[in-house]
Structure formats: C-alpha cells, structure tokens
C-alpha cells in the first residue's frame, strides 16, 4: 500500500495584508509539501464577514504570488462552505457526539460573572448535556460537541513534542450557533478534512485549538492530521512583532527592493535551520526542509541579516534575470520604468554594480551613472572635485581618450600616463573623471563606468565638465 501523499495548507483570514509571520507559515507549508511531491492548498478563512474584505484577499494572493509560493487548485472560500459545516454539526448531533444546548447568551454571561466573583472556574458546563430530548423546549438551540469529562487529550506535535491537556479543562465547544451558523473551530476541521490536509503547520498560538479541534475529528471518526505548531516571530527587541517594529506586510519588503528569493531564504531561516547553512537556493531548501529542523523558541526578525542575505542573492543572480526583477520592482513600487537605453546600459553595468548592493534600490543608486542623461548635475562633493585644476586635467586627458582603445586597461593606462606626466597620484585624475561621468564621488571604478557608457557618451560628459577649454 502506497503512502498517503502530503497535503499542507495555508489558511489566512482576509482582514489585512499578508503579515510576515503568515508569509513564513505559508513558506513552511509550501516547502514541506513541494519537497515531498505533495500538494499545497490555499483557503481564505473569510467567515468573519464584518472584517473580511476582497481587498485583503487580493493583497494576500498578490503577496504569495510575489514570494513565488504557488498553490494547487483554486483558493477555497471558507464562508462558501457554511452549508457543509452545518451538515457535519447535524451528523454529530445525530450520532450522539454532540447535543442541543438551549442556554442563552445572557445565562452563560451571568454564570461566568458569578463564577468570576466567587473566584471559581468560568468554564461553562451546559445543563442540557444529559437532558432527555423529550424535555427539550421549542426554542433556538446551539449544537455543542460532547467533550470527555475526565482523562487527558494528548497532542503529538512535531515541533512542540508531546503536549498533554486535562479534559476537565475543555468545554463542550459550540460547533453550530443558535442562528444556524457554524463556528470557526468546526469550519477549520471540516475544511481540512475535505481538502485532504495531512499536515497542519501553523503558529503555536493555535496549539490549544488543536485539542478542541481533535474533538471534532474523533466525533466524526476522521484521521487527525500531523500537528506542527511553530513559534511566533518576535522583533529585534525580543517582543512580539507589532507595528513598532517597522515593515510587517510582505508588500513592504517587496517595495523596499528585497528580491523574493532572498525573502524565501531569510524566512526559511527564521525559526528553522539546516546545520550552519545561511545562504541557500530554493532547490536546497526544498531538499533540506523538515519539521525536525524547526526550533521551539520564537525567532527574531533581524534586518541586518536580511540585508546580508539579500546582497548575496543579488550578487548571485544572472544579469538578465536581475534586470527583469528590477523592471518588476520599479513597476510595483510606482516608479518610472527604464527606457531601452537605460536598460541596455544597466545590463552592461550589472557586473560592476550588483556586488555589495543589499536591495534593488541600492543597486540602482550604484548604477545611477548609467541611468542619468546629460547634462549631468554634480552634487556638492562632485562640484568641489571639478575645480579649475581638475577641469584642466580633464581637458588634457580628452585628446588622449579620443585616440585610445576603448578597453578598461587602455583607459586606465591613459589616465595613469597623464597622472605620471603631471606628477600626481592616479586619484587626482580619477576624481575629476568620477565627478564628470556620474556627478557623484561614490561610484564604481571610473574605467568600468567608461566601458559601460561607451566612447561617445563618456567623452561628451567629460567635455561638459571640462568646459570650453576642452575643445568639445
């Protein structure tokens, strides 16, 4: 008999953007399923009609798509399955695994208030649990699952280990409200069962829910999935992640210019490890990822580490792939697209600008010399480097450059020759060149810039900076 194929799911509530914690949960589920030839399914848990919005659903789908986490089949709406959830509650009632409870909200609230005042357990025990159905009133009722009153419920968790909960701590959970609407705890179990989910990988804030959800699995005679409750993500200060920690939604990371591959790598390492490996490819992550590598302690968001990994991914990317991603970055962040001249120059500049860039924004800033058009406006430092002596150097260098072979070595030899002739260091020639070519003093090598810009553009920029005395 063949082993059951792995099916994992990501089930976000559409009440806002795709949170960084949710993105990591989705990634862990995606890696676990895809690495085992299984299925990764998506369910939108939109039962909270008041707070769920189509815009939030769209933002979640967009975030997952940008991250490169593809799902199998269509995204399922939990709210659309309400009739199926109610049907399961009715079946539980018919089998005796659940019962009708006629207690009103006011009665339950009064009980809890009294229990609190008397310093005793506020766990509500329905007086209707063992009442003869013949004695039931003709009134609205909720359906409650019949939980065991003694013993223990054991959760065998792949991350948290063996977790034991005393059954006298579990209430008879409502599965269908008196208005006929199913509760979230029932809907989750029914949907996971119907979608064939074999492994539930989610935040450890759901750990206690597992014990209550197991009541439904057992009442229906369904297989309980493999549980894996992962620790939450904390900020750099060790506190639970919140708005004060900065970027929270994946679209913010996208718009800050981090490549999706770097985010996948970073999020995978946030709470999971494979030895000491920090930088790895998708193929390696898919091959290595396992639930046993997930730690029990909360992971800490570390922007420095993200930047370092991001820089490694940018440096390792093929130039044409990098250019395509920059096109996408500019579009998604609402910036002007590059024209064909800029794209051509940027592609030529890639080998000189991608090393050391931590984001696409960093790379574009380093490549600014290739993207700007004449006349070049020097900043204050570059303006200072274009004093009369420096302009004279540019004027003297121009005729030599006009006759030079346009290669890096030949251009450097030209500049070195003039520096020697004038009895100055190469920096005294390179500085004015840098200011002329880029209008900035922090740039790639001037000779690399000249090879990217080409003879005509380079000489024109040098001529502009040197002024009339250069003869250009």
From TrEMBL:
Keyword ATP-binding set for record: yes
Q: Where in the cell is it found?
A: Cytoplasm
Primary subcellular site in the record, as a coarse category: cytoplasm
Q: Which is a GO BP term held by this UniProt record? A: glutamyl-tRNA aminoacylation
The alphabetical list of record keywords is: Aminoacyl-tRNA synthetase, ATP-binding, Cytoplasm, Ligase, Nucleotide-binding, Protein biosynthesis
Glutamyl/glutaminyl-tRNA synthetase class Ib catalytic domain sequence ranges: 6-306
Where is the motif 'KMSKS' region annotated in this sequence? 240-244
Q: In chain numbering, where does the motif 'HIGH' region fall? A: 12-22
Which residues of the sequence carry a binding annotation for ATP?
243
Record EC number: 6.1.1.17
- Report the enzyme's class at the first EC level: ligase
In what residue span(s) does the Aminoacyl-tRNA synthetase class I anticodon-binding domain sit?
A: 330-465
Q: GO CC annotations?
A: cytosol
Entry's Gene Ontology molecular function annotations: ATP binding; glutamate-tRNA ligase activity; tRNA binding; zinc ion binding
The UniProt entry, under Gene3D superfamilies, shows: 1.10.10.350, HUPs
Q: Does the keyword Glycoprotein apply?
A: no
Report the catalytic activity: tRNA(Glu) + L-glutamate + ATP = L-glutamyl-tRNA(Glu) + AMP + diphosphate
Record InterPro entries = aa-tRNA-synth_I_cd-bd, aa-tRNA-synth_I_codon-bd_sub2, aa-tRNA-synth_I_CS, aa_tRNA-synth_I_cd-bd_sf, Glu-tRNA-ligase_bac/mito, Glu/Gln-tRNA-synth, Glu/Gln-tRNA-synth_Ib_cat-dom, GluQ/Sye
| Protein family per UniProt | Belongs to the class-I aminoacyl-tRNA synthetase family. Glutamate--tRNA ligase type 1 subfamily.
According to its UniProt entry, the function of this protein is described as: Catalyzes the attachment of glutamate to tRNA(Glu) in a two-step reaction: glutamate is first activated by ATP to form Glu-AMP and then transferred to the acceptor end of tRNA(Glu).
Which NCBIfam families does the UniProt entry name for this protein?
Answer: gltX_bact (TIGR00464)
Describe the subunit structure: Monomer.
The name under which this protein is listed is: Glutamate--tRNA ligase
| Species in which this protein is naturally found | Profundibacterium mesophilum KAUST100406-0324
